Amino acid sequence: MRLKLHFLPVLVLASLTSLAPAQEPRLEFVLQAGHTGNITSVALSGDGKRVLTGSQDSTAILWDAVGGQQLQTFRHAHWVTSVALSGDGKSVLTGSWDKTAILWEVASGNKLQTFEGHKDALTSVALSDDGKQVVTGSQDKTAILWDAATGKRIQTFEGLTGVVSHVGLSGDGQRVVTAGGMRAILWDAATGKKRRTFELNNFVNSVSLSRDGKHVLTGVKGGTAILWDAADGNHLQTFQGPYQFLTSVSLSADGTQLATGGILPGPVILWETATGRKVRTLQMDARFVTLSADGKSVATASTDRFTVWETAGGKHLQTFESPLGAVADVAVSGDGKLVVTRSDDYQAIAWEAASGKVLHTFDAMGIALSGDGKQLATGQVGITPILFETASGKQVQTFRNVHTYVVPNVALSGDGKFLASGGNDLRLVMWEVATGKKLWDLDQWGGTSDLALSHDGKLFFAASGDAVFLLDAASGKELRTFKHADSVMSVALSHDGKHLLTGSADKTAILWEVATGKKLQTFSGHTAGVTDVVLSADAKLVVTGSKDRTAILWEAATGQKRQTFQGHSGWVAGVALSADGKQLWTASHDGSTRLWDPATGKERFRLYRFDGDKDWLAVTSDGFFDCSEAARRFVTYRQPGMINRHDDDDTRNRFHRPGLLTQIWAGER
User: Fold this and answer.
1) Which of 6-15, 158-167, 236-245 shows the lowest mean pLDDT across its residues?
2) pLDDT tens digit string along 577-631?
3) If you ran DSSP here, which 8-state letter would residue 629 be given?
């Protein structure tokens, strides 16, 4: 079992310099598959022709609202929590959990300015119409007004009693509004002084400021939106929706209409501000809504999709939903011929490495592959771990009547005789594979992040919190503890059971001597938590994967780096190494599984699977591809630095290489 994390970016670029005719422009491959994480925010251009979305995959994506094409991707170090578009559509503003906001140039995708100064994650951002001023709100209970050109702080709005959940900025940049707790506050941008406080009877989830700064719209948790006169604080109109949780409000530039969105239930409602009359109801779950400046379009977003509508008739213009999910784990058979990947939708796929052919799919919350690859143990969203014959998908054994909640962690001994499981019911259980019989059960043991069994099934390792516990597999008796400075995220064991490798949120991996508990080597070099680890069959090499989007190959004895594998745009959540050490596999939240040459560090290919196992796409680092017919629609190209795509069959045919994986395995590529 490997660490399960959420969501990261989808844009993939690869320079195409070889095999393309010299007279033709150099192109780069761009995957058109949307976000791999939950959508967190949405914004519309003034004319409604472009949509900007932010996501937990650490990206913001700019879309053509009419054609549905991805135009540009903007990447942060952590979740993008809020997005905004300038009035002229030439720049994009993004805010992130990485405590920064970034202003980007749309045409090139380049950073124009980074705004640093908050002490905690950003929750909301806003941009003036002329793009000259930026407002950011944060969990640090402050909002800041910035000069967009210089990145300098103009004003800090302090004295707030809680997290700033939302911010707004008038078109001329003279008024700022903040929402937090049970109040919204209107501020003078030049002086930083409060002009008006709006007290509510519930938590304010969203706020919108009219373009002229004369009206403030607040949305509260209980389902009510209220329009206020900014000058005197008078309550002008109430809009009561059916929501249990109203999550988003948006006011048109001229102040004549507004939109509300919420959940339980989740229709989007368009209202006439003057009368409070419902103009239109769009029947869809929408946590986020935004009106275009001209009021002709509205964009609505749930966590996994967004839609653009025409406000006048409620006509559905475009829906965007990514078919690509984050890959959370990877395992490879000893001979490197069979690969199993698990996605965050709890689906595992066993496939032939040389052809990409799917052998079988499994429901799986966690996976453990036997050394020969013939058996696959799965942790279940249900309460029963299951052992399968990998190639056929035939169920070999079930392990019943012990776990009472989901089972995310499983481990299989190398000889296939024993299986261990850790459930969210805080149980650790050891099973005999042949009979399905429970050998022992530790009730209320605690939560686990990873498990490992020695090849002979005599030693059992369970990671929990900042420690790994060595247990006697026969009795469940605790023998030894191995400690990190932070949570342990992954464990691996040498074939002979003499060495333990652990990876931690403290950004290190440690190699231990099992018999003594002695620390043999510390591997330091990642800039974020180590999510997965693996030891080579001879225990001479160590591989680590990290939230910093890289994997590293190390010498076990010296702790020296041999290779760093870069290219993923999302967290590396899983790593695997073939027994001969010639294949290194990585699985990432960017939706790809990649094969690397450990000797050179070169990426050999990346594989994407869409809608489970229905469609697939394999791409080399220089942009040549093979895919199922339906996956061709995700393949596009562009000239470096250009926003427009070459989304045509002629271009795709130039780079399509049927039988690509077979050619790679035959050494022809």
Assistant:
1) 6-15
2) 999 999 999 999 999 999 999 999 999 999 999 877 788 999 999 999 999 999 9
3) G
Instruction: Encode 117-130: b = buried (16+ Cβ within 10 Å), e = exposed.
Output: bbeebbbbbbbbbe
Task: Give how far Cα 647 sits from Cα of 36, 68, 546, Å.
Answer: 21, 12, 33
- Taking the whole predicted model, whether its pTM rises above 0.85 is answered as yes
Report helix, strand or coil for 473: coil
10 Å CB burial of residue 601 (0-12, 13-18, 19+) is: middle
Could you give the count of Cα atoms lying within 13 Å of 297 in the half-sphere of its Cβ? 20
- Write down the mean pLDDT value for the chain: 91
Residue type, 143: A
C-alpha triplet 164, 165, 169: angle, nearest 5°: 80
Whole-number Å distance between alpha carbons of 167 and 253: 16
653 φ, ψ (degrees, to nearest 5) = -65, -30
Please give the C-alpha separations between residue 109 and each of 75, 486, 534, in angstroms, as whole numbers.
10, 36, 36
The 3-class SS string of 502-530 reads: EEECCCEEEEEECCCCCEEEEEECCCCCE
DSSP letter string, 210-240: -TTS-EEEEEETTSEEEEEETTT--EEEEEE
Is 377 strand, coil or helix?
strand
Classify residue 537 by its DSSP letter. Answer: T
Reference 74, options 103, 46, 50, 98; nearest CA is 103
Q: Which 8-state DSSP code applies to residue 461?
A: E
- 544 with 526: CB under 8 angstroms? yes
The answer for 520, left when phi > 0, alpha when psi is -120 to 50, beta otherwise, is alpha
Q: Which residue has the higher pLDDT, 263 or 239?
A: 239
Number of Cβ within 10 Å of residue 325's Cβ equals 23
Burial of 372 (0-12, 13-18, 19+ CB in 10 A): middle
Between CA 563 and CA 637 the distance in angstroms is 29
Pick from 98, 92, 90: which is nearest to 61 by CA? 92
At residue 634, does pLDDT exceed 60? yes
- Beta-sheet strand order (sheet of 235-240): 204-209, 215-220, 224-229, 235-240
**194-211 pLDDT per residue, tens:** 999 999 989 998 999 998
